[in-house]
Amino acid sequence: MNEQIKALQAEIDAFVISNEGELDSFRNQFVGRKSRLASLFDELKNVPAENRREVGQALNGLKNSAETKFEEAQEAFAGNTADFEVPSDLTVYNPISQGSLHPLTKVRARILEIFNRMGFSVSDGPEIETDFYNFTALNFPANHPAREMQDTFFIEKGAGEIQDDVLLRTHTSNVQIRLMQHQKPPIRSVMPGRVYRNEAISARAHCLFHQVEGLYVDEQVSFKDLKDTLYHFAKEMFGKDTKVRFRPSYFPFTEPSAEMDITCLLCKGDGCNVCKGAGWVEIAGAGMVDPNVLENVGIDSKKYNGFAFGMGIERITMLKYQIKDLRLFTENDVRFLKQFN
Ligand code: PHE
Predict the structure, then answer these.
(1) Ligand 1 atom closest to Cα of 173?
(2) Residues at CB less than 6 angstroms from ligand 1
(3) Which of 269, 267, 290, 272 is nearest to 280 (CA)?
(4) In ligand 1, which atom is closest to the CA atom of 286?
(5) CA distances (Å), 57 to each of 13, 63, 71, 170, 178, in order?
(6) Which of 42, 45, 74, 185 has the greatest number of beta carbons closer than 10 A?
C-alpha cells in the first residue's frame, strides 16, 4: 500500500496541467469520487488494523496535495482569457443574431400608416362573433347564398352540437357594425384583423388570413371619394406608377359594389402566371355602404352615407415581395423570415 501511495504521489507531482483538457484528466484520475485515489481509500479496510492509522494519514496527505494542485490550476484557468479574443472594435462585435418583424406585421403597419395619414383611426373587434355582426346587420338576408360564399366555421355548443349563431368571423366587416353602434358620424376608421374561412390549405388559400377593412361615414360622401382614397393608397403602397381599375361587383353590405385591381407588379401589365395573363390583380373589395346597413345600426341613411373597402393583407404582401405560396406565412421557416430584416 505504501508503495502505491508513493507512486501516485510521484505521478501527481509530475503531472503538468497546461490546458482545460489536462485539468479534466487530472480531476478524473486524482480528485473525483471515481478517481484512482478514491479507490485506494476503498482498499483501506483491507490494511491490517495496526497499520491502518498510519496508512490513512498518508492517504489523506496524498488527497490534500492532489486537491491543492487541482484547485490552483482551476483558479489559474478561471482568470485566463487567452483563448477568447477580445475584438478591437467592440461596436462591431455582435454575436447575437436579431429577430425581425413578420412580413405580414410590416405590411399591416404600412397599410395603417398610409390610412392614418388620410385621417383614418384604427378600430378593433372580436374574432369570435355572432351571426348578427358577421352577417345579419351587414344586410345578408337569412338563407341568402351570399352567406355560403364565405365558408363559415361555426362554434360547437358541446358534444358536437353546432351553435348556429356563434362563429369565427369570416371578414373584419363585423367591426364596421360595432363601430357604428358606438360612434356617431363622421366616422373614418380602418380595421385590421384575423379572419377565418373553412377552406383547404393550399398555395392560394388558407383557413386563416388577415384583412384590413376601411369605413368612412359622413354627409355627402361620394364614390369619387372612395376611388381617390384607394387610388392614393395603391400608389403609396406599390409605387407611383401603379395603375388601378374598378370593376363592378356584388357585396350585400355595399351598393353599388366594386373590386379594385392594380397592374400586376411582376409583369408590369404584360401578362404572366401570377395575374394569369390578365396584367391586372385584384387587391380590394369596396362600395358605398348600403342604406340598410346604416339603418340597422340606427344611423339616418337620408342624412348620412359612406363607403367601405376591404383588402387581404396576405395578398398585398405577396404582391409586394413576390411571394408565391401563402403557406410560407405560417410555417415559421427562419430562412423565409430572415429575408425581411
Ligand atoms: N368583407 C368583404 C370580404 O371579405 C370585403 C369588403 C369589405 C367588400 C368592405 C366591400 C366593402 O369579402
Answers:
(1) 1
(2) 171, 173, 213, 251, 254, 285-287, 308-310
(3) 269
(4) 10
(5) 18, 10, 21, 84, 87
(6) 185
pLDDT band at 116; cut points 50, 70, 90: very high
Q: Which residue has the higher pLDDT, 270 or 7?
A: 7
Cα(31)–Cα(127) distance, integer angstroms: 64
Identify the pLDDT of residue 57. 92
Tens digit of pLDDT for each residue in 244-302? Answer: 999 999 999 999 999 999 998 877 878 877 788 888 999 999 999 999 999 999 999 99
Given pLDDT bands bounded at 50, 70 and 90, which one contains residue 93? Answer: low
3-class DSSP state for residue 279?
coil
Which residue minimizes the CA distance to atom 8 of ligand 1? Answer: 285
- Considering only the top CATH level, what class is 103-340? alpha beta
295 is in an annotated binding site: no
Q: Which three cell numbers stand for residue 282?
A: 385584384
Report the atom number in ligand 1 closest to the C-alpha of 176: 9
Distance CA(317)–CA(329), nearest Å, equals 10
Site to probe by mutation for ligand 1, drawn from 168, 173, 176, 254 as the one with most ligand atoms within 8 Å of Cβ, is 173
Atom 10 of ligand 1 has which residue's CA nearest to it?
A: 286
Res. 20 pLDDT band, cuts 50 70 90: confident
CA of 302 to the centre of ligand 1 (A): 23
Domain ranges across the chain: 2-79, 103-340
Mutate which of 135, 209, 251 for ligand 1 pocket (most atoms within 8 A of beta carbon):
251
Residue by residue, DSSP assigns 178-245 as HHHHH-PSPEEEEEEEEEE------SS--SEEEEEEEEEEETT--HHHHHHHHHHHHHHHH-TT--EE
